[in-house]
Amino acid sequence: MTGISKADQLKRNAPLKEKPFKSKHYLAWFHSQGFGCIVCANPQIEAHHVKEHSSDNRDDRYILPLCEYYHRYSEFMSPHGSPKIWRETYPLDVQKSIATKLFEVWKNESMDTD
């Protein structure tokens, strides 16, 4: 008689992943606020999606304002150019905390206009 493998049992007991939040309205608000890059304060920003694993889906609740250089190219510190140094400087909990605060501001503002 064959039973359920240990791996399958663990999968069954794993909590369901929350569906990623996507919002054009939030992204438009985010880009309209005049946020500067969190590293260098450059006002020309891109939205960096904070993800725990590279396979995670992009969730618009967790975005940070970064200039193009610090977002993609810096070998000194960039989530895509030098992720190890990036995570040492901005640990995941710090990144999520900053992103959550920005999202909460938008959520509160959009509730005021409804």
Any descriptors?
single chain, 114 residues, mainly alpha, Herpes Virus-1, two-stranded antiparallel ribbon, 2 strands
Helix count, DSSP H or I runs of 4 or more residues: 5
Output the CATH topology.
Herpes Virus-1
Distance between the termini: 59 Å
Provide the structure class: mainly alpha
Task: Write a structural description.
With 114 residues, the protein is mainly alpha-helical. It has a single domain, classed as Herpes Virus-1, CATH 3.30.40. It has five helices and two strands. Strands 1-2 form a two-stranded antiparallel sheet. It is flat, with a radius of gyration of 18 Å. The model has no long low-confidence stretch (mean pLDDT 88).
Topology, element by element:
Blueprint: H1 6-13, H2 24-32, E1 45-49, E2 63-67, H3 68-73, H4 83-89, H5 92-113
Short description:
Helix content is 46%, strand content 9%. By secondary structure, it is mainly α.
